[in-house]
Specification:
Layout lengths: L4 E6 L5 H13 L3 E7 L2 E6 L2 H8 L2 H10 L2
Antiparallel strand pairs: 1-3, 2-3
Helix pairs in contact: 1-3
Amino acid sequence: EISPTVVKFQAAPEDAVGQAILGNSITLTPGTLTLDIHEGQVRVHCLTKQGAEALLSGDFNERAAALTRR
């Protein structure tokens, strides 16, 4: 069921490269589009409530952060 929503959350990656990876990865996921990343805050449009909930669970966020940790 389509239930468009916009969610906002804090990016786990602290650097610009990690945040860009996160935003691009979200946009490549069907049904989601990264609208903005500003000062670590990420805004994403999701087509379904389930997609928004999955995004807010933090798994995607942590995986992107792990790519840039040293």
